[in-house]
Structures are given as structure tokens and as C-alpha cells.
Amino acid sequence: MSAEILGGIMFISTLLLLILGFPVALTLGGSALLFAYLGHTMDLFLWGFTGAYPTRIFSVMTNEALVAVPLFIFMGVMLEKSKVAEELLYTMGQMFGRMRGGLGMSVIIVGALLAASTGIVGATIVTMGLLSLPPMLRAGYDPKLATGIINASGTLGQIIPPSIVLILLGNILGDANQAAGEMRGNLAPDPVSAIDLFAGALFPGLLLVLLYLVYQAYMAMFRPKTCPAIPTDLSGPQLWRRFAKVVVPPLALIVLVLGSILVGAATPTESAAVGAVGATLLAMRARQFSLPILRDVAQATAKISTMVFVILVGASMFSLVFRGFGGDRVVEGFLHDLPGGAVGAMTLVMAVIFVLGFFLDFIEIIFVVVPIVAPSLIAMGLDPLWLGVMIGINLQTSFLTPPFGFALFYLRGVAPESVRTSAIYTGVFPIILIQLMALGIIALFPQLATWLPRALF
């Protein structure tokens, strides 16, 4: 048996264990250590290779960009628990409710605003499901359309910056770009960071929002019974005063946080700190702040952040051992030998990520798959920013795909019993088609992902 074969067995075994539901961090680190020991006893792995592991962990813990992760999580959880999202949805529903499909459009817009402030898919879908599904059903919306719209808007947090997914992808793609440069003999390639990926994902994220709104408008025009208009309680000056009070402050916070990153006035970490403080001030302004709420937000932030970083520690060991077996060279050779060159390799990788999204969480895919395939794809000439945006939208699509889409499970857990599971499953098919359409548009026009970063930076 060769070292490359043992590395392939380790990779497949780890994926199977993750699909079976074993703890992610322990599975990644434990399987890597086990196969490293087996390889050492079989003279297929140099045990001294693991000596680089402490340096890797130290570099992760001292990476300033990753400090933004818990801060953005705090910002999102604070906005969720302080009922800012609930006020947003009610106000937007009052503004658009008089027109057919108006409530659905309100859900999409509020979902986009929450995506730009939370970046946490599960929390957004649960929040939108609890807040918007009951009034949509009471208004006479078709359950398939209502649940599809909620799933669509809830998963926008995957791609609309500032997103946790983009921060993690930016960190990994930066390392992959450096490795790809070494493959090509370029020891100083142009750096790639989360800031670049934020800028690259802005237009694709807005494209998705526009396509969702067009879909809702189409349903309102040609199938009006699925999305009737609703009566509103506010009108005229009252409505605009409420808009200024409820919608403008969080919108201003989002513009401040994201705008300061894009214009280079602040790093993602600095902007995340401003966002966390701003979300707390919004909660105080809405008189929804208390010590119990602060405790809940802090505990939720600590749990989610710990999960992310413990997985990152395990994934660092996995990728180190995989490289020790020569797995990176095998992947590079395999992708280079595929018919179609870079296009064929990209198509295969996107298909694999799409299928893995049925079974694995996005964090697992980012930490396990992307570090293995990204260096080779970038070395073949693909733009790392375009690659990151394509992977982000692909992960978003796989979140929705039956039978194992995580978004479907989140919504099923909070949907009323009157909403059948089949309605939730069938309602996402138009959304999946829209996201695949968006992937196709960005593949044909990569400037959507690459123009803004180059123009700004």
C-alpha cells in the first residue's frame, strides 16, 4: 500500500464518520492522528511531520481576521433576541402588504437585512419561520410559496457580507492562494483576504435578492391566489415615522459596518466590534435590553464560536496529515488530468461540494474539502475571489436540497403542524433553480464577483 492510498482511505473514512453524525472536531483530529500512527508504523508517514501542528494552531489563534467571527455572531444574536427582527418584519409588512405578494417581498427584504447583520443561517431561518410563517399562512399564502420564500431569505446569510462563511472562506482561500503561487513558482502572489471576498460577494448576493423578488412578483402576477394582499394598520405619516424609527437604524448599522470594510476605513475585526456595540445600542433603544438577554447572547456567542474554532483545530490536524501522505499532490494531479481543464475540474468540485452539502454542515465542507481542492484550482488559473463566491452560493444551494437540506430541518422544527413536510420540501425547488441560475450567471460573467474588489482595492 502506498502513502497516497492510505491518505485517500483516511479522507473517505472521515467523510463517512461525519455523515454518520460523529462529533466533527473529534472526528477530524482523531482520524488524522489514527491514520498518522498507522502510516508511521507502516513506514508510509513521517511522524515528525506532526511537529508543525503547534505552529499551525498558534497561527490560527493569532489570526486577527478570525477575531471577527465571535463579534459578528454576537451582533447577529443580539439583533435576534432583542426583537429587532420582529419589528423589522412587521414594519416592512405594513409597507408592502397592500399589494399582492407584498408580504413575501417584505420577508425577502428583511431576510437580506438579517443576512447582512447575522450571517448565521440556522438562527435566521428559525427567526423568520417563527415571525413570518404564521402571518403569511393567516393571510392565505400557499404553504409551499411561504416556506420556499422563508428558506430562500434565511439562507442569504451564506453569501451576503459580512458573513461567517465568507470570513472562514477568506482565511482558507488566502492560504490556498499562497500554496497555488508556490505551485506556479510565484512566491509572492497577490494576497486574498476576507475583505476581498466581502466585496466580491456583494453583487452576487444582491443578484440573488433580485431574483427572489422577481420570482415573488411572477407568482403575484400569474398565480395571485398563492399570495394575496393583506390589510394594514398603518398608513401615511404613521407608516413613514415607524419606518424611520424601526428600519433606518439597523440599516444604518449595516451600512456602517459593511461600508467601513469596503472603503478600507476598518478591518473586518474592527467593523465587527462596531457592529456588536451598535446591535447592543439598538437593543437598548428598543427597550429590549436586559442582563438576562445579555447573558443569553453571550452564552450563544460562546457556544457557536467555540464550535467553529474547535472544528478549525481538528481540521488543521486533518489537513496536515493529509498533506503528509501526499494527498495534495494526488488531488492536484487528478484535477489536472480531467478532461476540460480548469472548467472540467471546477465542474467536478462544485458537484462534489453540492452533494456533500446534503449530509455535512457548511463549516465541515469549508474546513475539509476547500483546503484540499482550492490550491489546485487556483493554480490552474481560476480567480480565487470568483472561486470563493461560487463555493459560497453552492453551499447555500445544498443547504436547501431535499432530503437532507439543513434549512428544511430548521424550518420544520418551528413550522406549525398544519404545514406538511411535503410542502416545505416542494416549496424549495423553485428556489434551488433560482440559485443554480445565479451560479450560471456568475460563471458566465465572473466580473460580478471580481470587478468590485479590483475597483476598491
How would you describe this structure to a colleague?
The chain has 457 residues and is mainly α. The protein has one domain (3-456). The protein has helices at residues 3-19, 24-41, 53-61, 68-81, 84-96, 102-115, 121-138, 143-154, 164-183, 194-222, 236-246, 248-262, 268-285, 291-324, 327-337, 341-356, 362-368, 370-379, 384-398, 406-414, 421-427, 429-444, 447-456. The protein is globular, with a radius of gyration of 22 Å. The model has no long low-confidence stretch (mean pLDDT 83).
Write the layout of secondary structure elements.
Elements: H1 3-19, H2 24-41, H3 53-61, H4 68-81, H5 84-96, H6 102-115, H7 121-138, H8 143-154, H9 164-183, H10 194-222, H11 236-246, H12 248-262, H13 268-285, H14 291-324, H15 327-337, H16 341-356, H17 362-368, H18 370-379, H19 384-398, H20 406-414, H21 421-427, H22 429-444, H23 447-456
Helix pairs in contact: 1-2, 1-14, 2-14, 3-14, 4-13, 4-14, 5-6, 5-11, 6-7, 6-8, 6-10, 7-8, 7-20, 8-21, 9-10, 9-17, 9-18, 9-19, 10-19, 10-22, 10-23, 12-13, 14-17, 15-18, 16-19, 19-22
The structural domain count equals 1
Give the helix tally: 23
Give helix and strand order, one letter per element, not per position: HHHHHHHHHHHHHHHHHHHHHHH
> What is the number of beta strands?
0
The averaged pLDDT comes out at: 83
**Proportion in helices:** over 70%
* Termini Cα gap: 49 Å
Strand content: under 5%
Spans of at least 5 consecutive residues whose pLDDT stays below 50 are: none
Radius of gyration: 22 Å
Instruction: Give me the oligomer status.
Output: single chain
* Structural class assignment: mainly alpha
**Main β-sheet: number of strands, strand sense, barrel status?**
none
| Overall geometry | globular
